[in-house]
Amino acid sequence: MSKKYYIETLGCAMNVRDSEHMIAELSLKEGYEEADSIEDADLILINTCSVREKPVQKLFSEIGQFAKRKKEGAKIGVCGCTASHLGEEIIKRAPSVDFVLGARNVSKITEVLHKPKAVEVDIDYDESGYAFGEFRTSPYKAYINISIGCDKQCSFCIVPHTRGEEISIPAELILQEAKKAAQTGAKEIFLLGQNVNNYGRRFSSDHPKMNFTGLLRAVSEIEQIERIRFTSPHPLHMDDEFLEEFAKNPKICKSMHMPLQSGSTGILKQMKRGYSKEWFLNRAQKLREMVPDVSISTDIIVGFPGESEADFEDTMDVVEKVRFEQIFSFKYSPRPMTPASEYERQVPDEVASKRLKRLQDRHNEMLDEMKVQRLGKIYEVYFEELKPGGMVAGRTDNNWLVKAEGSEELLGKTAKVKIVETSRLGNIGEIVA
Ligand code: 5AD
Ligand code: SF4
Question: Do residues 304 and 262 make contact, with C-beta atoms less than 8 angstroms apart?
């Protein structure tokens, strides 16, 4: 009987892809299959995130739970960013853990599996040329890594310490993966990296010159691919060439993530983001002019050390001006090894909470206004998922979630859908063609 894995994936899309890579390795090299439950698994993997403190605190209680529920002899592995960050301390604090595998070492999953108490967390390890086996959670959409690590030194961010320095993955590997995915039914490709539009800055072996715009063009030349998405781009690298390609290439989905972090030029400087409030507004405005239908999403941190009321007002001002379709907002969380955690003038938690609430309340009002504008309009929806009650769900080109009546035969297909009901989070539509 084949062995079974159970995997829990926290954090970002990069972690989702790392989990897929580990599953591919485990099934190709060791014949593993997915378990129905924790109790049924021979191997339990937790793929962790360390970007904020709370999930890290939760990790140890979760390991305790898993250790109680697992069957005799089953192994527990802690992978991902917290694994990179805490390394062997994890096994010291939680002896039921059998191995620790860092976010930049996932290709070694089948090695550590057989080494008792292994800790593989080298952030200088170069996985950029490793050809992972293929495994996709969704048959209709393929995630593809285009770089590993991150060279930016944002002062709040732990990622350079968990994923190491930035190396681009050779374009021929990316294109090979994209072609394979397209041949096996994925019409949508999702390109992933910490800083995608910095692609091509550094390869670990000889490589013809290529930047992100060039990579987008090359991927879009693959015939069966209909939609290309990517995350995350950095506002600093949103040059005109990139915005023009985004606007005119019909295969690139018209949804852009523009992580603002703060609207105050002073705070952006402290964050070491490399752009000002004006640059951000200029890029967002240009994008809205070039692509009137674009959806812009963002990440915002409130309560960064030294953030005054006036700084926060600058953030609110950008929110008013750009009218983001989606905001991921967080209270600043001091992280070990980051310069900002040592800055003076940390903002009291009550102040940060108040600002977060004000931001979210105002944005909810804006979403209520925006949703009305969608009513009655017709969008192309690529259906990817079955939903209860005879429904199927998919996304519009500009990333709105739409549910419509339908069944399996719609999966992997694009249809024209008229929006008949909207809420902040999703839409109900009727298929018109
Ligand atoms: N505190 C709060 N939010 C953070 N992020 C990254 N580091 C921190 C931190 N120390 C947020 C940023 C980033 C998103 C993935 O997480 O907004 O874009
Ligand atoms: Fe979390 Fe960042 Fe690691 Fe993604 S890269 S898992 S967001 S710490």
Answer: yes
